[in-house]
Design goal:
Largest sheet: 10 strands, mixed
Oligomer: single chain
Helix content: 40-55%
CATH topology: Spore Coat Polysaccharide Biosynthesis Protein SpsA, Chain A
Order of helices and strands: HEHEHEHEEHEHHEEEHHEHHHH
Distance between the termini: 58 Å
Strand content: 15-25%
Number of strands: 10
CATH architecture: Alpha-Beta Complex
Shape: globular
């Protein structure tokens, strides 16, 4: 698969397009005390073979006190005090109102661009096809010296085995033999990228980790009023775009580095519990659901996931299959992660059911 990706990247038309044809872009980075990652993140953006005068970097900060702002200033980033200290999602939405240019990219501080041509590759589909409203890389980069969990997430193409078995993943797994589309949506191979059309009922969660989008489309679909930033969510925003008819996306045959976990499984479980409770059980209902209880498709796949996680056979088979494609023992925490995430979501769901029952009982 590595050969297929490199071949596609080498054959892209970006090298023959004059710099004058590449548009001005705004890159939004949401931050909160992330100085260790931010310097490398911004450094890799600065190394891009893209006209420097056409790149605007916006740092939407939640109140950092660790030196993140000084690092941002050294790279010429514009700093916005975004508030929402404990929630990055509203800051993502707020960034749209400060972005100067029509093409906006979401690159979080734990996202790192793997090569100098990456940015041109992401923008090329916008130049070639006016129907495309957003782009993102097709895979996560694999780095052998990364942490166990980060290697596992990159290899799987997702940070959640439940989403993987629900088929609600937006990146290819390294377990695949070839660079071919096997995700949701209808895809057309355009050489250096796939042109993909989604329907609201059949789409993965989209909207961050190297996601570029037309600002006008995103504002029209998800943020008609600046006050709405408090309920903004990137997956909901992409879902709203598709509902509005902006359903054509470009999945570029490239990769992006995502260092999403510094610790081991227990720290990740804590993070998943917090994010799940924040996203799915807050007062503002979600528009996009990775698991939709009203969907027969999702219910069948959820049942499969429960059986797989309890019996271990299918996750172990998938781990072995992945190991044969990419030799890394990180694959073999897959059965463990399936069982752990089953327990995690069972705990969160049970907790919320009991909470509602007690509120009703007392009230």
């Amino acid at each position: 698969m590595e050969f297929e990706i490199k071949k596609a990247e080498q054959n892209t038309k970006r090298d023959v397009i004059d710099n004058s044809q590449f548009p001005f872009i705004s890159i939004i980075i949401v931050t909160f005390n992330c100085v260790k990652n931010l310097k490398e993140c911004l450094g890799r953006i600065d190394m891009q073979d893209y006209p420097k005068e056409k790149i605007e970097i916006l740092l939407i900060d939640g109140g950092s006190t660790d030196g993140s702002l000084s690092v941002a200033k050294s790279f010429g980033a514009k700093i916005v005090n975004g508030g929402f200290k404990h929630d990055a999602e509203p800051r993502r939405g707020l960034g749209l109102f400060y972005a100067t240019y029509e093409i906006v990219g979401y690159i979080d501080s734990d996202i790192f661009l793997p090569n100098p041509n990456w940015l041109k590759g992401m923008i090329l589909p916008f130049i070639e096809d006016k129907d495309i409203v957003a782009t993102q890389p097709l895979m996560y980069e694999y780095q052998r010296n990364d942490t166990l969990l980060n290697r596992y997430f990159s290899l799987l193409g997702n940070h959640d085995p439940l989403a993987y078995y629900l088929r609600k993943t937006d990146r290819l797994s390294w377990a695949q033999r070839e660079m071919r589309w096997n995700l949701l949506g209808t895809a057309e191979d355009r050489g250096s990228y796939f042109k993909v059309k989604f329907s609201p009922r059949r789409m993965p969660p989209l909207g961050c980790n190297g996601f570029f989008v037309k600002k006008r489309v995103l504002l029209e679909s998800a943020l008609s009023n600046r006050k709405d930033v408090r309920i903004f969510n990137h997956s909901d925003a992409a879902y709203s775009m598709v509902i509005k008819g902006y359903n054509t996306f470009g999945f570029v045959k490239s990769k992006v580095i995502h260092r999403t976990s510094k610790g081991f499984i227990l720290s990740w479980v804590k993070k998943r519990i917090e994010s799940t409770e924040n996203l799915y059980f807050r007062k503002v209902p979600r528009k996009y659901k990775v698991y939709d209880p009203q969907s027969l498709w999702d219910n069948l796949n959820l049942l499969k996931f429960i059986v797989y996680s309890l019996t271990v056979v299918k996750p172990m088979y998938d781990a072995l299959r992945g190991f044969m494609r990419k030799r890394d023992f990180a694959w073999f925490i897959h059965p463990v992660m399936c069982f752990v995430m089953l327990c995690t979501y069972s705990y969160v769901t049970t907790k919320q059911i009991l909470k509602k029952f007690l509120v009703k009982l007392i009230g």
